[in-house]
Amino acid sequence: MRFGIGLFSLQSHPENPVSHAEIYRQTLEQVKLAEEMNFHSAWISEHHFLADGYCPSPLVIASAMSAVTKDIKIGTGALILPLHNPIRVAEDAAVVDNICGGRLILGVALGYRKEEFDGFGIPINQRPSRMEEGIEVIVKSWTQDRFSYEGKRYRFNNLSVTPKPVQKPHIPIYIGAFEEPAIKRAGRLGYPLLIGPGRTMQVVRDTIGIYNKAAKEAGRDPGDIEHILLREAYISEDKRRAREESDRYIISMYKFYFSLGVKMSVRGKELTGPDDPLFDYLSEDRFIIGDPEDCIREIKRYRDEIGINYIVCRMVFPSATHGTISRCIELFGREVI
């Protein structure tokens, strides 16, 4: 099993009133600690135009993380590719890969907030084409000395993009996908999934099934693909404390994402609002919560029942203090990893 740490969103929160400069400093300390505790990777997410300062520049903080670590891989989970010029992404990612000695992972996603697309002047209905063309342009930038490209959204003539990444043939690419068309797209293109954290075991199983079917229809062998599962995680030496504190940190975060327009279902019913009583049951079959033995037992389920061997533990919650997050990282690394 391999384990990642994240998602680093670098948000401020009323319950944890520290400056953004301090949040960034604490983030680098947390990544260094995660490396010491044998986490395999650290992951950064992206959003724009939010009052809490949600990280808008994942590759910038990835560069800072790479400069204070030696071995841990650093991933974007995920960079909202349709909002970016793919040549710029290819250049910035290659620079980071050179800084960190070949440790970058590029996770990309469609995005879903209309406010972000409006803010950048990009029609939200262009997401799929910008995603597919963007990935193709990025890979050509990394693997060809010189190339031209003409698509529906992007046109480039006789470009030589430098520097090239350290990793060959190129930086690993993962696709974050939630809805069925996006999952099928990832399978057709042949890139592994970043499977989101708010899904039950059955939905994770179904997601992989949809992916495998699309990959096979495209003539690809999905058997060699290793997907990454993101999972909310909270650990304490005391079971009751773990449950109580995870409710405080995780459920409030999910209510925040609900306010951004993320659809959620619990017990087969779609949540209707932040006061929906079904939020009380959100953790069922979704999260890794408890003492070390509880966490180990839950992780073995994903390995044995679905074949998941790589889990990113999302234990960096905006409302949690630096001390709380650090204790979780250390205990998980020492007793679970």
Task: Describe what you observe in this structure.
- Strands 1-2-3-4-7-8-9-13 form an eight-stranded parallel barrel, surrounded by seven helices. It has a two-stranded antiparallel sheet with strand order 5-6.
- With 337 residues, the chain is an alpha/beta fold.
- α1 runs parallel beside α10, α3 crosses α5 and α6 packs across α7.
- It is built from ten helices and 13 strands.
- The chain starts with a strand and ends with a helix.
- The model has no long low-confidence stretch (mean pLDDT 95).
Layout of strands and helices, then pairs:
Blueprint: E1 2-8, H1 20-36, E2 41-44, H2 58-67, E3 73-80, H3 86-99, E4 104-109, H4 114-120, H5 127-143, E5 147-150, E6 155-159, E7 173-176, H6 180-189, E8 193-195, H7 201-217, E9 228-235, H8 239-259, E10 265-266, E11 269-270, E12 288-290, H9 292-306, E13 310-314, H10 322-335
Helix pairs in contact: 1-10, 2-3, 3-5, 6-7
Helix content: 40-55%
Q: What is the number of strand segments?
A: 13
Main sheet: strand order: 1-2-3-4-7-8-9-13
Bin the strand percentage: 15-25%
The gross shape turns out to be globular
- In whole angstroms, the N-to-C terminal distance is 8 Å
